[in-house]
């Protein structure tokens, strides 16, 4: 009941679809044993197909970008009179540079624009780190809600992913997990 091969699907933040790779048999099979035990028919899998979430099952990068921009627009963020908007190529770089939503915004305002925005139709830009944090917290909270709406409306699985899952689920030698 030892998995000899793990096929892992991964995606880079830039959106590369997937790649498979092999790893040697693990020295501890504890996690793999419990994976087998949890199967309904009691049979063990020779293979495991593991999916990552973001970017693998669904291409989410663009939806994150749209949600940020929608939040920026709602808050009426302006820097020197200009809107704050993340383009596709810029967001791609951001994705690969900074982890986490709030960190992306801090990076943008501190490293890229080197200024925090005014907001809500002219409210002065944050004047100290506490105010900066507060604005970023509010933006992130709103972005999260907008993102959930976008996922509900627009998210579709990547081509072939559901077919691959169905094939793997139908094969008793393959365990499937997220
Ligand atoms: C942003 O700028 C700061 C200060 O110059 C620097 O220390 C930091 O490494 C920069 N962040 C990234 C992700 O480049």
From TrEMBL:
Gene3D superfamilies linked: HAD superfamily/HAD-like, Putative phosphatase, domain 2
InterPro entries (alphabetical): CbbY-like, HAD-like_sf, HAD_sf, PGP-like_dom2
Molecular-function GO term, any one: hydrolase activity
Keywords linked to the UniProt accession: Signal
Signal peptide stretch: 1-20
Keyword presence, Signal: yes
SUPFAM superfamilies: HAD-like (SSF56784)
Domain of life: Eukaryota
Parts forming coiled coils: none
PANTHER family linked: OS08G0485900 PROTEIN (PTHR42896:SF4), XYLULOSE-1,5-BISPHOSPHATE (XUBP) PHOSPHATASE (PTHR42896)
Entry protein name: Uncharacterized protein
Native source organism of the sequence: Thalassiosira oceanica (Marine diatom)
